[in-house]
Amino acid sequence: MQSEDRPRSPSVTPLLAVAGVLALAAALRLYAFTWGLPDDTHMFSYHPDEFHSLRGALSLATGDLNPHFFNYGSLYLYLVAIACMIGSPGIFASLSTAAIGGPEIPAALRAFTFDARVVTVILGIATVYVVYLTARHVWGHRAGLLASSALAIMPLHVVHSHYATVDVPGAFFVALTLYFSVRLLDEPTRRNLIWAGIAAGLAASVKYSGGLVIVAPLLAWYLTLRKADDNQRVAWREALTIAGCAAAAFALTSPYTFLDWGNAWRDISFEMAHMRTGDDLAAMAADPNGWWFHLKQLNLALTWPLLAVAIWSGAAGILQRRRSVITLVVFAALAFIVIGSAQVRYARYEMVLLPVVAVLIGWVAQRTGLRLKDDAPKAIGGPIICVGFVAAAWLSVLWLMVMGHVGFDDPRQTIASWAKGVVADGGTIGLVSEPWFHHPPLDYCNGGPALRSNPIWGAYRRPVADFVVTGLDPNAIREPLPRAFIFSEYDMAAPPEQVSAFQQTLLKNYSNWWKSDSGTGIWWTTILSPSAAHDWLYPFPVIYWCPSTSEAGND
Q1: Is the distance from CB of 73 to CB of 257 less than 8 angstroms?
Q2: b/e for 501-528, b at 16 or more Cβ within 10 A?
Q3: Staple partner for 42: which of 167, 424, 430, 446, CB 3.0–4.6 Å?
């Protein structure tokens, strides 16, 4: 059976064109690949979640198959462990006898974070290829090229492909499930049923919420149902095949979710409660509607022109009752409802939408016009798509220039050098919270309150000065004042009135404040940052610093 409106492949060699798109995707994801990696000044990377991706490798290196971390599934953790065994075999073997406080553990964190990022890059590039396969299967080679090109340059996917986190890997398995789902529409074979179920289970095994993608193969199965009564029993066995394969794939790749259910449920229930209550009160006050928040963030994730093209394509496909479009759009709509309902809001939650958006862009673009009917103007689609592609590529390049320090020094390093000079004679530094990813490396152990309180990581504390951690309590700022005070916008996640009272107290005791994004000569940071969610700003956090009034004249 031939797929809907699938044109013939072009006369040029498809493989060469696809290789070019994948090469572009690789170049964008490998540039500035070492951003924020642990070094001699900070033990943990400047991404707050990358350490958690190493838990499987750290456990496995000490002979324990249980990752002891269940806030999300275990598949990515195990893939990282395999990468560490291959990429850093000597360091991996040395951990079983490493002494706490010795050099082996920091060396492992540096090497393993690098290895974990390699896994993310590989799966990120693979996602671009799966999007090509999906769009090609439904609409042909040209649509596949345009769809994969769109994903290759989408800023959200480009930036997060640099991080050792679950979001890009999870999106790969979501895209793989969608691919087998659209194949299922044309080829309702047992093989496609099995692979669609396995891919959905693996998506959940990377990130639990990824399991929502199982609605795509189930919907595809439903749309292919034969209504004859004698086929109903067979049809329901097919649905159970999808669900069973998904469950088996999850269980095999996240086994300790069941084998260590007590601890797993502790972490899972924490995440469920966390999603209901939220953690960034300032962002929630600014955007009380989660769906509006994510709609705005999609402007940075893929740009408004490309989003408009995808929405038009989805609407046109639904009106024309195209089963492939219905399958993709239903999943995307459900995913958007879920992420918009959560009180925890990060742009990276939109990652699962990008494969759908890219495929829909491919369809509209290959038809050269935004239209619901064949006689609609063809001149509209091309310019809008071109503007979207240029804007997306431009944003991706800007972020990569910041991550690669092209004309831009990381404010954390700059302020750390300044702080060492201010407190050279033994003065103290005031902080709102324990040193973490959004602070200058004022202590080698920069893992935030949780890791710094752990005896293993706490053994690596090497502060450049004594700290006074005040929280946002104005009464905690007392005489004698810290020699300098430093805080970032990440510290200000509190009700506005509490933040205002704290800042007023600071202003009474400190003068000549500096802000990290002023005077840098990088004008685009003011373009990127105002509307960006916090996880966009890991490469250039806004940090404020100042010596006390008595020291200001000496600075």
Answers
A1: yes
A2: ebbebbeebbeeebebbeebebebbeeb
A3: 446
